[in-house]
Amino acid sequence: MSNLSRDDVAHVAMLARIQLEDHELDRLAGQLDQIVDWVGQVNEVAADDVPPMSHPLPLVNVTRPDEVRPSLSQEEALANAPAADDGRFGVPRILDEE
After folding, report:
1. Sign of the C-alpha dihedral, residues 11, 16, 21, 25?
2. How far is CA 28 from the centre of its chain?
3. Three-point CA angle 11, 16, 18, nearest 5°
4. Are 13 and 19 in contact (CB under 8 A)?
5. Segment 72-97, tens digit of pLDDT
6. According to CATH, what is the number of the domain 6-45?
7. Is 70 helix (H, G, I), strand (E, B) or coil?
8. Domain-wise residue ranges, the chain
9. Strand 84-85 versus strand 88-89 pairing type
10. 3-state secondary structure (DSSP) of residue 31
């Protein structure tokens, strides 16, 4: 028998903004109860000397240093633009705001 009631599943579905039929609530109550049991088993296995982590391997962000380098001037950047307006690229309006 499930430890989660239909009301518990209905409450979670309401929080997630999911509309469920009555037969779906019964089916999902059992499935969610199994998931909660599996998470409980993982918590039992986790040792106190193992720190929590999101990835099994350490992640290193590989980026280049942010250095100032020569680049195009504003005029050079806009030279081949199909439309320019007041030193900026001209693009079609997508919002109807004035």
Report:
1. negative
2. 24
3. 85
4. yes
5. 999 999 999 999 989 999 988 888 76
6. 1.10.20
7. coil
8. 6-45
9. antiparallel
10. helix
